[in-house]
Amino acid sequence: MAEFNNVSIAKAANILFEGNITSRTIVFEDGSRKTLGIMLAGEYELNTVHKEIIDIQGGILEVMLPAQDWVRYEGPASFEVPANSKFKLRVHMLVDYCCSFIKNN
């Protein structure tokens, strides 16, 4: 999907790691949400509450999910992160991404 229609967009950015990861939250009519953002080169550790599906539009990074080895992704690509977990990123080249949050029912 190249664009999203009928959404609300937060004016304030989500800023992590001194601005090295930034995003904007978008909310759909059904209440589901995604973030659209960029990640600058660096190493990061993030936490999840809900399951996340991260779609890489462009860029290169490696991801270490819980109990797994590093896996390299070059956009376009996607990967899933389990709910209630920590994961590590090594961003090698600016990453343009969309993150979908999947709430448990």
UniProtKB/TrEMBL annotation:
Keywords: Glycosyltransferase, Transferase. The keyword Disulfide bond does not apply. Its EC number is 2.4.2.1, 2.4.2.2. GO terms for cellular component: cytosol. It catalyses: xanthosine + phosphate = alpha-D-ribose 1-phosphate + xanthine; thymidine + phosphate = 2-deoxy-alpha-D-ribose 1-phosphate + thymine; uridine + phosphate = alpha-D-ribose 1-phosphate + uracil; a purine D-ribonucleoside + phosphate = a purine nucleobase + alpha-D-ribose 1-phosphate. GO terms for molecular function: guanosine phosphorylase activity; purine-nucleoside phosphorylase activity; thymidine phosphorylase activity; uridine phosphorylase activity. Pfam families: Ppnp (PF06865). SUPFAM superfamilies: RmlC-like cupins. InterPro entries: Ppnp, RmlC-like_jellyroll, RmlC_Cupin_sf. It is an enzyme of class 2 (transferase). Catalyzes the phosphorolysis of diverse nucleosides, yielding D-ribose 1-phosphate and the respective free bases. Can use uridine, adenosine, guanosine, cytidine, thymidine, inosine and xanthosine as substrates. Also catalyzes the reverse reactions. Belongs to the nucleoside phosphorylase PpnP family. This is Pyrimidine/purine nucleoside phosphorylase. It comes from Arcobacter caeni.
